[in-house]
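Hello,

Following up on my earlier ticket. Below are the two sequence lines again, exactly as submitted.
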Amino acid sequence: MSACRSARCLLSKATAAAGSPLGLSKGTSKRTFHSSSPRPARKRRPHYPSIKASDLKILNEDAQTLLPKYSDAETQLLSNRYTPSQLAAIKAAESVIDPRDVLLQGSQRTDPWRLPYHSDLIEVDKIIDHAEKLDVRDTIPQGKKNVRLANAVERDAAISKIATENLAKLYPGGLPDGQLTPKQQDELEQAVEGAMMQASLDPRAIYTSNNKAELAALADPRYSVVLPDLPRLDSRLAKATRRLSSEEQEDPRQKRMLQYLGWDKSKLRQIRTKTLVVHGVVNQTRMGKIRSMYYLTIAGNGDGLLGVGEGKSVEPEEGRKQSVMAAIRNMRPVPRYENRTIYGTLEKKIGATKVLLYSRPPGFGLRVQHLIFELARAAGLQDLSAKTPRSRNKMNVIKATWEALTSQKLPDEIARGRGKKLVDVRKVYYGGSVH
Amino acid sequence: MSLVNLAHVCSHLQNASKARLAVTSIPVSKLHVKLMLGLQREGFLSSLTLGGPTPPKPFLLQAQPSPEHLDNMADLLREQPWLAYPVADRKQPRAVRALLQMQTTTNGGADEAAGEPGAESTTTKISASQLPSINTSSPLTRPGDASEVHVPLNPAKRRLWLGLKYYQNEPVLKHMKLVSKPTRRIWLTSEDLGKITRTRESAFVKGLTHPGECMFVTTDRGILEARECVERRIGGMALCRVW
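Thanks for your patience. The regenerated structure is below:
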């Protein structure tokens, strides 16, 4: 910085510099007092997804073609079937729902709790919906509000009154008279008992007030504090969390892997992964020691696919992700006998580790050490026993087991190698209903 | 019946299949020949040829008979079918005759794929030019055919040549292990063998649990596979297990 320049030109804006008395060059901008490049202003995210005009146009066109308005001929056809008032209702309903919304968000519910009708939920259904909440302060007419605990006499009177009301609802034509059958007698006794129980639990039996409207409000569920609010669908939170599937953030690594496997996301969700080995490793360089984390993860779909992956990174989370992706990418089929166990004894030796795997009868379970257990569970094996007679190095046990499971020879292959013909007679006897 | 030599054969076959050899040779003995015949019957070996220190010509390098020659042979065999069977020369010693008998039977199994009726029939004669060896040829075969193998007259120089098999880049015979040891022979009853073939341990012999595992047993009816012994209800001395 030259000492000749005044502080004014340093702090002045670039636009002002053009007309400055010192005649500085036009491109001179306001200088910063540090050498690193300035940080751009925080990128603000809009509150609503920005839609391009072209996309909006496509959407409008789709809405027009897929959900067109009724033509005159169609209206004519409808008028044959519906009364004018029904037709008006249909048109009103059609106009309420934007076809663009139907395209973007609309999906038919298939769950058993779906509503038995199509509605935009504007009106409150007295049977299905909660009653609208009311506030005591606003709705009860003026008068003295004096709720107090009822004494014994008031309580008994209130209970008998409420019980009578309840019984009147159950028997609108009055209580049955004359000779009753034992069944009727039983029903009546139950009704009286239920009415008395309800009455004793009613807040009007516990509290009392001179103000009749207030007393009535005590029993009205619309004034209840416990009654949940109706969900507000137009809340900002709901809007912020509502996202289209295309807008979802995608992990580039995951995306590449999905392309590699030719899978979609739903298939990836069925894969179970578990990190079995974690430890730190050190690389000695001339600069010093570089510590990183090593991860060994297994992945399986529980139905005959099993993979083992390793990852290593200075960043722990990065290393773990690496190993998970490698495990999913390395998944190989595990041949299973009757979808539960292996074909005969398997042996595999890696380094000083030897793994012996034995097939076992149905219901035997996974009587194996924990690492082999995890592998067998991920692969969907149910009956297995194993021995690790030599070294039990975790990494090598996992790798040896994986190699042994995935490189099994099938009986058909063995028979073909020996030039023999093998026929599974169970498939004949049991009509092919074996695995 | 030395099991030491059999142990050497076992480990040699494992090593040869690990090295992905196409043919290998083992010393000749009656036990070895019979066991190898059993292995061939179970499909572990592709061919079995008695020969000298040099391997027999591979099938692909052998002279292929022309169609006319095959037709001629077929006509000849129709008229004189006994030509299909080996006839040992009376002048030869008995041992040589027996060997040739064995040789032709084994070749018969190996050359089934070739599908030539003439190649299976061999008669023997000692040619003057190759005096120390037995030349196996027949009126039906021509020079360079599969059946023309020179077997040395000196038994010490004879070798049994085995064709090894591979399927999908993996050896068909990968493991071969003795069950009886030179110091401890194991005799098994047919009940024992029944348990062993059903993957259970019996008489301190582990069951056949590996996929496609075979065990060979020497019995008074020859060397048989364990399952065959169970079928025939014969016991015997366990030799080796193969998988």
